[in-house]
Specification:
alpha+beta, UDP-n-acetylglucosamine1-carboxyvinyl-transferase, Chain, four-stranded mixed sheet, 14 helices, globular, binds uridine-diphosphate-N-acetylglucosamine, binds phosphoenolpyruvate, Enolpyruvate_Tfrase_sf, MurA_subfamily, transferase
Length: about 425
Amino acid sequence: MGTFQIEGGHQLKGSIQPQGAKNEALQILCAVLLTPEKVVIDNIPDIVDVNKLITILSNLGVKIQKLGKGKYSFKSDALHLEYLESEQFKKEGGGLRGSIMIVGPLLARFGKGYIPRPGGDKIGRRRLDTHFEGMIKLGAKFRYNKEERFYGVEAPEGLRGTFMLLDEASVTGTANIVMAAVMAEGETTIYNAACEPYLQQLCKMLNKMGAKISGIGSNMLKIEGVKALNGCEHSILPDMIEIGSWIGLAAMTKSEITIKNVSWNDLGLIPATFRKLGITVEKRGDDIFIPAHTEGYEIETFIDGSFMTISDAPWPGFTPDLLSIVLVVATQAKGEVLIHQKMFESRLFFVDKLIDMGAKIILCDPHRATVIGHDFKSTLKATTMSSPDIRAGISLLIAALSAKGTSTIHNIEQIDRGYENIDERLRAIGAKIIRTA
Ligand SMILES: CC(=O)N[C@H]1[C@@H](OP(=O)(O)OP(=O)(O)OC[C@H]2O[C@@H](n3ccc(=O)[nH]c3=O)[C@H](O)[C@@H]2O)O[C@H](CO)[C@@H](O)[C@@H]1O
Ligand SMILES: C=C(OP(=O)(O)O)C(=O)O
């Protein structure tokens, strides 16, 4: 179990370049299974979850070549489908959430797809019904082995386009169904589709490969099935969750930070939400400039003077993956805010650790926490903690960087799942952080 030692209380300064988006990369990498032709992908983040998926693809027989930093080519012309029934796959496939998205492309191209119960953050129930209901609608037969927690879909006769209304706008579910449907016979309509930039990017890439998808960016996707897909080149967008993390980090450590090349038009409500906390988020070309908040920052109220609430919603709502970061930043704001995590039921328990550090937080129930900011009148105190999930992990890291004294964070593998080389990148802007094995 790796550990970070963090000496907090220092202002940081400089520029930081966001990595490629984790959640987009996981979708895009699965899409390489849809064609026997070469697919070149650029801006792939070097993070644990993505590297695990690349290993799975390699074990499946995908020929992978590194072309430069973050740039790889993939060729899925001679796959070893027997790997899908091996004990090794049962272990490796369950190592991350994103692996679930190999099922749709395999079903589309080979008429079968299997997956063990996927891993990912332990942040509450994470069901897969939407994925499989969509594939069943397309004509696949579904089976589930309860003992082994192993899922399978088969469609030896091929898939047929249809209309479907998803029971929820699942991000990975929509990606999986889209990839299953691109080569189905006839037209598929997916209503209540998720439409995060991750999915918009996936659909654009698939269209470059010869798919016929319209409605991109909306919650109604129409897909006209094609016989086969060809190769393409694709570049992954900057990670909007990392960008939000750096905005929070800058404000809470009173640091002046420029976040480079953020693809501003794909950030949705992220800048506006941090502004509600009183943080100055300045657009400079395609960069974000955060000035040093030496006087602190003050949470807005609603127009009628009532208490601010920040909650998550499917895109274009505010992403649930940034709520833990908003929460930690609010602990030093002037004012109060209610954080309402609607999607996941176990994602707020990490606030106990912030309370230990001196933050004023009331956990109202598993979904809601009220934060009363200190307005920097009292700093957080250093402590020893363990990172329960990726976003709680980065939030604790931000708290430790703002705290007085030296904190220790264990289980930093959780942070490495989604943040590339984070200690070195933070040291480059002045953070005092040491990694020990
Ligand atoms: C690898 C990957 O891409 N992971 C992301 C993906 O996970 P993932 O695709 O697994 O998440 P889903 O979109 O399926 O659902 C997330 C949670 O929200 C609930 N839900 C979802 C949609 C909805 O309309 N109502 C609702 O309540 C689900 O029941 C579930 O508990 O999307 C999540 C939601 O943005 C993000 O937190 C994850 O980082
Ligand atoms: C919940 C997350 O990831 P995953 O779905 O991969 O567990 C996340 O990125 O915040």
